[in-house]
Specification:
alpha/beta; TIM Barrel; eight-stranded parallel beta barrel; two-stranded antiparallel sheet
């Protein structure tokens, strides 16, 4: 599969852009475990052109994480074009346009998945952004606004005509948010449309190596994108890649192996920010890790993790878990 000048091997697996999750520390960790491409947190075009410091900080990328895609969102032409040029100056490998975020503060204002209610504006913005930058431009979107307006099959062709280099489709409508199962049939229909020639990347409910394999084999996508399932489990990328390459599920490692990975995530976050902000950023991801889902009566421990204010406090809680009750 190729996106612009980037060439990926067989069965590419990407880390999805997620707000307050895919900061540079987490991206580097996922890259270490085999993610073929990583995406930044999504960046507000309006905030970027206003030079908001917190937003500008999201432009930082590392050569160690390449290839890396930078994602922007917005609802107006001029800020999106200007933001695209600003992002290009930060030298990402790809610029991705977010037309899929379903949260109210984004979609409710017409940006993200809100663009699915105004496809003509979506297409106009896409065309102008493609013309404004030299790096490949890609799009991430959903099936449609709701069950009565699943427009992705026609929309995909029209986005391709705008000059995008690849299209990622989340198999839900905006109305679904993240509820219910993702519908991959329309993703497959887009991929198997003989008029589509750009790569199609599938996203939605990819939480196991087997589901990723099904996405390739049954629906024919060119790549898969893993999102929420990677939170608190960056090792999932290695498990997926190993399975795709060998057909065998990897052996589970001792509990401490996974615990040490989560500790590394915390320490990297603290090193990038400082102890207070690093703990605030990482503790909720650690507490949500599927590593702990089999622990009986875990809720009080989870609450304690979410209240931890220092590395030592958080690590003491993690080290105090009763491993005898954990089934991996």
């Amino acid at each position: 599969m190729q996106i612009g000048k980037l060439t990926f091997g067989k069965y590419p697996v990407f880390l999805a852009p997620m707000e307050d999750v895919t900061d540079i520390s987490f991206r580097l960790l996922c890259k270490e475990f085999g993610a073929d491409m990583v995406y930044t947190e999504f960046i507000s075009s309006d905030a970027l052109v206003r030079h908001v410091n917190k937003t500008k900080a999201k432009l930082d990328v590392s050569d160690d994480e390449r290839p890396v895609a930078m994602q922007i969102y917005g609802k107006e032409m001029e800020p999106m074009v200007e933001a695209a040029r600003i992002c290009e100056s930060a030298q990402p490998d790809i610029l991705d346009l977010n037309f899929g975020c379903p949260v109210k503060k984004v979609a409710g204002k017409g940006a993200g998945a809100g663009m699915l209610r105004n496809p003509e504006l979506m297409l106009a913005i896409t065309r102008e952004v493609v013309k404004a930058v030299q790096i490949p431009v890609t799009v991430k979107t959903r099936l449609g606004w709701d069950n009565d307006h699943k427009i992705i099959v026609e929309l995909a062709e029209r986005l391709q005509d705008c000059g995008i280099a690849a299209l990622t489709i989340h198999g839900r409508t905006r109305a679904q948010m993240y509820i219910g199962e993702a519908d991959w049939t329309l993703i497959g229909e887009v991929k198997n449309n003989p008029r589509m020639f750009i790569p199609v990347i599938g996203n939605g409910d990819l939480n196991s190596p087997e589901k990723c394999r099904e996405a390739f084999d049954r629906f024919g996508v060119d790549a898969v994108m893993v999102g929420r399932a990677a939170i608190g489990s960056p090792w999932l990328f290695k498990e997926i890649k190993d399975y795709l390459q060998t057909g065998r599920l990897p052996e589970r490692q001792p509990f401490k192996y996974y615990l040490d990975i989560l500790k590394k995530q915390v320490l990297q976050s603290v090193a990038r920010l400082d102890e207070r902000r690093g703990i605030l950023h990482s503790r909720r991801h650690i507490a949500a890790s599927p590593l702990f889902k089999h622990i009986p009566d875990f809720k009080p421990t989870k609450v304690a993790m979410l209240r931890a204010n220092t590395v030592q406090e958080l690590f003491d809680i993690m080290d105090g878990l009763n491993l005898n009750h954990i089934s991996l």
